[in-house]
Amino acid sequence: MSGTIGFALHGGAGVLDPRHFPESRRRECAAALGAIATRAVDALRDGAAALDVVEQAVVELEEAPFFNAGFGSVLNARGEVELDAAIMDGRDRAAGAVAGVTRARNPIRLARAVMARSEHVLLIGAGADAFAAECGLELVDPAWFVRDERRVQLANARAEGRITLDHDERYEAVERVSGTVGAVALDRDGHLAAATSTGGMTNKRPGRVGDAPLIGCGTFADDASCAVSATGHGEYYIRRVLAHDIAARMAYRGEGLIEAADAALAAVGAMGGAGGLVAVDRDGQVALPFNSPGMYRAWLEPGSGRVRVGIYRDPEA
Ligand code: ASP
């Protein structure tokens, strides 16, 4: 029983150039991040389990239209939504993930169902959609996820023949929404958990799977070290096995959380990958590094006990 809690969430790395980010929109986005984090921290203070808290925070981020997860996700090259999500329990490394799903309103709930109600860790596509129905999760028509501005984003990406991160600065003329979502938590009983959910990358090839649902790449949790949720150009995160790299640096080299997270992200950056991550350790320490101009984030500041929100380098509040 440690008694200490810890929490951080992200809504994607990389952000609009501040000159193209309407002030009202920026405030709305920051308020949503802060409100979701505050509810999560309150729940942890009341004794909620880290696993439940990260799932709930990600459900709320999926439901928010600003982010590239659940409702409002980006579109693949065929103009369709294909969603990836994962959740991991640091107590025993139990994990559940889904990739390329199109029907579950909240893919993170489906990932949790894979963990809790199947013998598997990762389900994909039609089989995962069928499992969502079998579990009685809320299903929606795939068209329900699509927002008009995502069609504009796809048209731009197609015109340039590019596959883009949601926060790619080149499309700053379009009012774009932010990225992938994730949360990490330490509960009062000393347990860690991580969850990540995403629509992936605009104009991605149908069938492409990113880092988010791959355990150890975009999502990882182990009570012995840390919980991590990443955002950024997934292919680099997969190749660096980013999330597990942080845990391994802590376990094998005795590095602290911040040192390990910085070093692991630097290795992604050295290969050309842009993005960031949120991580928490068993002391409630939080790491929030990013190598893009910003990362939508909110966290419980160790020491002060305050919930902070950031978009660019400096905290917003
Ligand atoms: N990591 C996600 C992916 O590659 C994208 C993102 O974080 O925006 O699927």
Rounded to an integer in angstroms, the radius of gyration calculated over CA atoms is 17 Å
- Helix-strand pattern, N to C? EHHEEHEHHEEEEHHHEEEE
The parts where pLDDT drops under 50 for at least 5 residues are 169-177
Number of domains: 1
Derived from helix and strand composition plus strand pairing, the structural class reads alpha+beta
Distance between the termini: 31 Å
Instruction: Describe the main β-sheet briefly.
Output: 8 strands, mixed
Question: Architecture in CATH?
Answer: 4-Layer Sandwich
**Shape type:** globular
CATH fourth-tier homologous superfamily: (Glycosyl)asparaginase
What binds here, in terms of ligands, is: aspartic acid
Q: What is the tally of beta strands?
A: 12
Summed up, the helix count is 8
Instruction: Write down the CATH class.
Output: Alpha Beta
Question: Can you lay out the helices and strands and say which pair or pack?
Answer:
Elements lengths: L5 E8 L9 H23 L4 H14 L19 E7 L4 E8 L5 H11 L4 E3 H10 L13 H13 L20 E6 L5 E7 L20 E3 L4 E7 L1 H7 L1 H12 L3 H14 L4 E7 L4 E2 L7 E6 L6 E4 L7
Parallel strand pairs: 3-4
Antiparallel strand pairs: 1-5, 1-11, 2-3, 2-6, 5-6, 7-8, 8-9, 9-10, 11-12
Helix pairs in contact: 1-2, 2-3, 7-8
Bound molecules: aspartic acid.
Description of the molecule:
β2 (83-89) and β3 (94-101) form a beta hairpin. The strands form two sheets. This protein has an eight-stranded mixed sheet. Strands 7-8-9-10 form a four-stranded antiparallel sheet. Helix content is 33%, strand content 21%. It has helices spanning 23-45, 50-63, 107-117, 125-134, 148-160, 234-240, 242-253, 257-270; strands at residues 6-13, 83-89, 94-101, 122-124, 181-186, 192-198, 219-221, 226-232, 275-281, 286-287, 295-300, 307-310. The chain has one domain (6-310): Glutamine Phosphoribosylpyrophosphate, subunit 1, domain 1 (4-Layer Sandwich). With 317 residues, it is α+β, with helices and mostly antiparallel strands. The protein starts with 5 loop residues before the first strand and ends in a 7-residue tail after the last strand. The site of aspartic acid (ASP) has 18 residues, from β8. Aspartic acid binds next to β8.
